[in-house]
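Quarterly update from the structural biology core.
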Amino acid sequence: MTISHLLSSFMVTLCCSSVFAAAPTVDAPLPLLDISERGELTMSGDDFAFVPWGSNANLGKVQVFQYFGATMSDSKIFESFTDLLQKSFEPGAIQVTTVLNMDAAMWGTTGVVISELKKNKRAHPDATMVIDDKGTGLTAWDLGETGSGLFITDARGIVKYITRVAMSEDEQAAAVALIRANSGS
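Predicted structure, tokenized:
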């Protein structure tokens, strides 16, 4: 076997194993997603800034991660569930993190998306809001064609629930019960 064949085989093996290793699985740790460009929107008084963010930043409490494209239609996919969370839990009882894939946004809408994100941060200061400029989460969390996903993890970062599509009312109720069971709420 030639060196080029060996290198090709090695690269194929490396790519395949990283894809399989990255797929989130129930009862396994959520694969790490690190976003260094732009990242988490932080607020201090009336000032906003972006800082690097990692999905392991808030271990110690139950977390709900929602990832979707920065478009109006994508933003609605998990909205009824996050509205239910606001009604079901006191602020700070769980950590809700929204990661927006800016790579999916229409050209020229970045300013509108960031303005909307700031508005939402003011309304929900305890929520974590993150911009993924390059769509890194699509691969890291194996989001495939839908480009969206919702993950519930326990306080140790172990995945307890996964969906890539909008949830029915029964699924939402079951997810709230799962969060209560894992958070003691």
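Confidence is low (pLDDT under 50) at residues 1-21.
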